[in-house]
Structure formats: structure tokens, C-alpha cells
């Protein structure tokens, strides 16, 4: 498991990772991107921004970086950074397949990405990822599994993924939607020749959406590394958008609302890596303060009262505009 590399890390931020969904394409659903990115979203401008974020993250102890075929040029940007930092050999690199980026570097595309969990798509995207990241790729995940995904029952696909695992690749999956817990449990039951196929799971979990928690605890107990995405609820928990309870706790701790939100996730005993989706160096630095936030029981109780019904949370997420 590549994540054993993190076990020897001693920095407080070693269990925080950086995801590039928000900075490697001009359009995304995170709130506040108009302010964060400004008007110049050329390929070179975002490449430079991404490299600066990767430099800052690594300097502050971050050792996991997360990309996907559908995150615009995220794999390309990360691969370029790795080439310029050939001395770095202690990071873990994860990517995902199953969505194809279709926005053609615009913010107003009718469809920004197309989902397809077929074996054909896996083979095509695995080759595309391999051309960019090569041997630096540690983890390859099925992107956004749901209970109805054919990838949960496709035996031929499972066999091909198991072949990749036998060659040293770690195989994982991510989840999305109100039935994340069902998806996690279904994926835990997938085996090839009697052996579990998946070694990691990446799910949405934050103070507003906690429904996957029990299933993620089961995954952790089964030996999977749990990666948490959208700990900031796509910007809903950032300072300008955060509920009053988050802002109040942030004021009490003397740190940002984002640090408080991510600290709640970090304290979960099953959370292996918690992703920052920062778009600026300032956001990244503030996010990383989560590693030193100390929350008491009263504060945790007030934050726990913010939980929404999964159907409500995911309906609202689905309505977020692409900025």
C-alpha cells in the first residue's frame, strides 16, 4: 500500500492531501471561484497556479496529491510538476477514471464531463493516465461509484483491475450521491479469486453530510485507506458561506472556518487522508491549520447539529452552478 509512506511522516499535515479539481480546469462548482481565480484562466495561468500550490503544499508537509481524468489538465499539470521536482520520492499520487472531460476549456459548456464505467473506458483512460504519470501513479480509482454503477458487477472489469493490482497498482474507488454508504458496502463485497479488489475508498464527508461515516468506519476496519473529499462542502463551509455555528467555533479557536470544518473530518478515527481543494496559496495555508485545531465537546455538539438529510445535501450540491 503506497499510503504506508505516510505512516513514517512526522509533520502535522501528513494526513492532509491536495486535490486539483478546482484549479486544473477553468470551470467547477466550488463557490467563490470567480474571486479565487479571476478572469485569466488560460492553460498556462492555471498550470502556473497549480505548480505554485503543489510547491506550497509539499513545503508544508502534504504528501498526497489527487487528480482525475475529468479534472481538465490535472494529470498533465501534476506530471509536469513531478518532472521539475525529480528529487521528490516520498509523495503518493492518486488519479481516477470513469469520467471524460468534455468542456473543452470553457466555463459554459452544456456538459463538463461524461460518466462511463465500462471496461472500454477504463482501458482508454488507463493508457492516457499512464502516458502522463507513468510509474509515478500509485492509486487508480473508479470515479464516483453509485449503487447502480455497472462497475460493481462487471466481472471482466474486476479481472482487469485485479491484473493491475497484481502488477503493483493500488485499486480504489470514490463515491458520490445520497447512497454513499450503500455503495461503500457493495464495493467492500467485490472480490477476485476470493481476495478483496479495492484497497482505498474516497467519499464525501463533512459537517453537513455525515451519512457515509459508519460505512467508512467499516471500510477502515476491513483494511482500506479512507480518503475524504469535499470536506468543505464545495465552499459552503468557507468563511463567506459558513453557517453561524461554524463561524462561532472558528472565532473561538482563532482560526478559519475552513480549518474548523476540516478538523472535524480529521478527528474521525477512520480518516486516513483528508483532501484540501484549495484554489489559492492563502486558502491552502488556512486549510492546513486544521491539523492543529483542538475542538471541545461543546463545540463538536454545536457543529453536529448542522447535519442535513443526504437527499437535501446532494440536491443542493447538484444545483451548484459551474463557475
Tally of DSSP β-strands:
12
Q: What is the structural class?
A: alpha/beta
Question: For the CA atoms, what is the radius of gyration?
Answer: 18 Å
Provide the spatial order of strands within the biggest beta sheet: 1-2-3-6-7-10-11-12
Short précis:
39% of the residues lie in helices and 15% in strands. With 323 residues, it is α/β, with parallel strands linked by helices.
Structural overview:
With 323 residues, this protein is of the alpha/beta class. It contains 13 helices and twelve strands. The chain has helices at 4-7, 33-37, 43-59, 74-84, 119-133, 155-166, 180-188, 213-221, 244-253, 257-266, 281-288, 297-304, 310-318; strands at residues 16-19, 64-66, 92-97, 99-101, 113-115, 139-145, 170-175, 191-192, 195-196, 200-204, 225-229, 273-276. Strands 1-2-3-6-7-10-11-12 form an eight-stranded parallel barrel, surrounded by six helices. Strands 4-5 form a two-stranded antiparallel sheet. The protein has a two-stranded antiparallel ribbon with strand order 8-9. The longest helix is centred in the first third of the chain and has 17 residues, at 43-59. It is globular. The chain starts with a helix and ends in a 5-residue tail after the last helix. The relative contact order is 0.15. The model has no long low-confidence stretch (mean pLDDT 96).
Amino acid at each position: 500500500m503506497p499510503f504506508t509512506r505516510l505512516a513514517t511522516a512526522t509533520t502535522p499535515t501528513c494526513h492532509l492531501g491536495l486535490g486539483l479539481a478546482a484549479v486544473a480546469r477553468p470551470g467547477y462548482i466550488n463557490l467563490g471561484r470567480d474571486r479565487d481565480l479571476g478572469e485569466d484562466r488560460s492553460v498556462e495561468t492555471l498550470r502556473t497556479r497549480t505548480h505554485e500550490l503543489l510547491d506550497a503544499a509539499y513545503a508544508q508537509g502534504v504528501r498526497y496529491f489527487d487528480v482525475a481524468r475529468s479534472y481538465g489538465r490535472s494529470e498533465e499539470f501534476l506530471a509536469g510538476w513531478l518532472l521539475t521536482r525529480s528529487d521528490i520520492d516520498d509523495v503518493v499520487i492518486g488519479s481516477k477514471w470513469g469520467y471524460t472531460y468534455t468542456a473543452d476549456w470553457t466555463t459554459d459548456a452544456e456538459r463538463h464531463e461524461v460518466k462511463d464505467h465500462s471496461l472500454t473506458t477504463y482501458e482508454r483512460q488507463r493508457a492516457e493516465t499512464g502516458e502522463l504519470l507513468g510509474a509515478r501513479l500509485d492509486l487508480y480509482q473508479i470515479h464516483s461509484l453509485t449503487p447502480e454503477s455497472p462497475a460493481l458487477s462487471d466481472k471482466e472489469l474486476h479481472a482487469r483491475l485485479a491484473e493491475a493490482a497484481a502488477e503493483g497498482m493500488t485499486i480504489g474507488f470514490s463515491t458520490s450521491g445520497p447512497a454513499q454508504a450503500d455503495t461503500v458496502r457493495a464495493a467492500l463485497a467485490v472480490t477476485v479469486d476470493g481476495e478483496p479488489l479495492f484497497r482505498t475508498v474516497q467519499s464525501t464527508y463533512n459537517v453537513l453530510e455525515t451519512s457515509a461515516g459508519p460505512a467508512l468506519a467499516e471500510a477502515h476496519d476491513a483494511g482500506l485507506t479512507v480518503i475524504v473529499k469535499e470536506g468543505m462542502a464545495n465552499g459552503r463551509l468557507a468563511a463567506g458561506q459558513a453557517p453561524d455555528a461554524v463561524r462561532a467555533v472558528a472565532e473561538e479557536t482563532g482560526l478559519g472556518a475552513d480549518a474548523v470544518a476540516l478538523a472535524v473530518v480529521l478527528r474521525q478515527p477512520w480518516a486516513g487522508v483528508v483532501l484540501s481543494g484549495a484554489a489559492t496559496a492563502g486558502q491552502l495555508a488556512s486549510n492546513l491549520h486544521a491539523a492543529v485545531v483542538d475542538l471541545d465537546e461543546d463545540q463538536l455538539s454545536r457543529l453536529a447539529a448542522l447535519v442535513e438529510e443526504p437527499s437535501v445535501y446532494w440536491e443542493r450540491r447538484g444545483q451548484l452552478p459551474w463557475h
